[in-house]
Amino acid sequence: MSEHPPVPPQPPQDQGPRQPAPSAPAAPAAPSDGFDRLLRSVPGRDWLAAVLGAVGGWFAAYVVAAIALLLTVAVAAAGSGGAGSGSADLGSSGSLGGSGVPDVQSLLSGVSVLLGAPAQLVVLADLGRLHGSGSIGLLGSGSGSVGVVPAVVLAAQVVLAVLLTRRIRSRVVALPQLLVTSVVSGLVLVALTTLTGLVLAIRFPAVDGVSIEPVHGVGLGSVLGSFLAGALTALLARPALLVRGNVLVGRVLGTVRVAASQLVVLVVVVSVVVAVVALVAQPSWSAALPVFIGNAGVLLTALGFLGGIGTSGLGSASSTASVFGGAGGWTWLVVLLVLVSAFVAGLALAVRRNDRVRSTLDWVVTPVVWLLGGVVLLVLGTLVVSYRVTGVSTLGGTGSVGITAWTPVVFLLWGAAIEVVARFVAPVLLPRLGGGVLLRTAKVVGTDPQPAVAWTSPVGAAPTVGDQPSPGHPVTGQPAAGQSAAGQSAAGAWAQAPGVEAPVGTPAVAGQQAFTGAPAGGQQPFVGAPAGGPQPFVGGQAPAPMSPKARKVLVRSLVAAGVVVVVVVAGAVTTGVLRANVWGPGATARDYVDAIARGDGASAATLTEAPSNASMLDGAVLKSAEDRPTDVRIGRVSTSGDSAYATVRYRQGGSDRTGEITLERTGTSFLVKDEWRVTKPLADRVSIAASDVLEGAPVTVAGKKVGTIENGVFESLAYPGSYQVAVGGTDYFTGGTKTVKVGAAAAPYVSFEPKATKALETDAEQYVSDLIDECATKTDIGYSDGCPWYGPYDADGAVQYTVEAAPELSVETSGSGYVEVRSTKDGTVAYSYRDYFGDAQKSEDSFDVDVYLKVEDGKLVSAY
């Protein structure tokens, strides 16, 4: 017996070309007749649907963008608390002026911002890039662009376009007409997006020396993106029109429907939770949420699928965060939500298939569909930035922030897992859920179209003629030889009409079995498989009751599987929470700052890898500090690879202070317990300057030497607080003691002036006394001898000096280390000599002292 159906007879064909009659020559056909007929065949309501769908989608996106921007401004204004009040004065160009009336340029600029900002958000939603350029006088020029898809704006555009298209379009349009109208929708959206983006570009008022070009997002990306958005939205508005009897297309679209349902539900739920948490716990985040709430939900959903988010380019090394590190332990709750939704998606996919014969191709289709879903989230969750600045030097670069490029591969693996649930778990679990649950699920996800199949008699049965098909005559909806149309109806249609999804649980035509391919007359359903094959979940016969033993095995299996899932999820959540709150950088930062606040320098030292010149980070030094931090709070902690950054807020001296510390992961124990060390402590660099005469003098805090004066300065890191710093000195000079405040608004800097010791005063006075005695022993004194008096002008020969009264002296030092010894009471000197006439003379005179000294090699010498 042949494996192929008999070929029906073909109409006879002439052997040779047919010549036209001489009396009636054929008129040449216009080349465009086929295309013209195609255009004329499109109903008017479909042309209207193509235009109104695109226009309505753009209008909805514009309105949502405007509302989001207004909410952003309102939230930002509410968050500022009205602190920035005052009058506006914009100067001569674009000012409010003395009359309070803005000029034309300011008005146009304000209007362009109010009307243009929502239009540019719509362009960004259609894959545009907001770019601008300008120059500032002699400083140079620059340009930059930002590409990000506002998910909320794009969702508004797609949803309204789909609703309008479904509402207006006719339901009998053929595929060629459908393609033509979809192209029209794409072109209309391109025209709207491009024209409004250019006309409503954001313009800035002219300022002397500053030139800023209009900012808009129109480009090649926005043209292609808007065309794809308009065309695909119109094409997929009613997917049943694409099936047209193609079972494979119907099943692929059904898988897409299930995947899209899961992702949309996850993004919406996560976005709502983010909005609530931001408004309650983190009001500072709320300003950006009205515009980018959908993007935040997309990012967290990608993390829940065990993907990653990070940065690339932007002048720094790439960094990535995931639920396994850097994203916070609470993100494991999103993983739990994704796990539950993935299991439900697998069951829904099985309901969609209605337990049809499963093919090997499903192992490819399902993962690929979820891979494409990951690609969509990648586009929605990534921000691309590029810039170029030309001035003294040229700077530029391109980078991205958002979902990592390998995340869609993880979605592919999730698709494979969902296919496992649909293929192996659903056939066991779904029949036990009840018809009501299955019917409601089928209304949400629909049912796959079933192929028309040939009826084959059971193995070993003799072929029959009549109601049963005879050998070699497959039944494809037409009666076989000897079978009447009534008999076919009685026996039931073998397959539902191509491209038409029959209502769940009801036959396609009168007398048709609910399960496609199942003939009437008590025959078993057969869809390309032996009798007793897969039974439908919806519309089929109720499953036979389970035996007590089978029921016990099923219950135990489900309980065991549930326990395993709960243990795994609980372990993952617990591990994530521990890594974030107990073993994470935040916990280390908390312990470290608490140790500083209570003056426990030893504990702080165990958590710190102190850099060089950090001798004041000592336990005894910290313990002696006054005005240490109080009311310490750990703010935002961000992790990038093995590095973490923590913001610290505290009070000191009645004022609020803010600091930042850096931590590095030094190791991981038992695969989950991270060990962190502080590499940039909560400290400021203290600078202590001193005169050259104090070079080498020791620096002490609380009696502990922390260093010496080198090259006129001592530097060290110190924790916030007030310290009593003492600078020693030599036998002649000392630095004294001063208070250094660390953590205050002013820089921790103090300068020490040398102070004379008692030894310096004594030795300086003795130096002057010795100078006077030395001068008294001389017999001839000139101006260059450095003595405090001069000899008689009329002396002829030697002069004898006698100090009758020594002067009273005082010693003063300067910041440069010079010593000045001056008399506070004059001294008296007597001298005897012979004048030019040979007569003996005696006289007496007073003298004062003003001598400058310096210390050299530990000794006092003349400064000149």
Automatic annotation (TrEMBL):
**Low complexity composition bias: residue spans:** 477-488
| Location of region: Disordered | 1-35, 455-488, 514-546
User: Which parts of the chain span the membrane according to its record?
Assistant: 47-77, 136-163, 183-206, 258-280, 287-309, 329-351, 363-385, 405-430, 553-573
Transmembrane recorded as keyword: yes
- Keywords annotated in UniProt: Membrane, Transmembrane, Transmembrane helix
Q: Does the keyword Zinc apply?
A: no
* Biased composition annotated in UniProt, kind: Pro residues: 1-25
Can you say what this protein is called? Uncharacterized protein
Report the source organism: Curtobacterium luteum
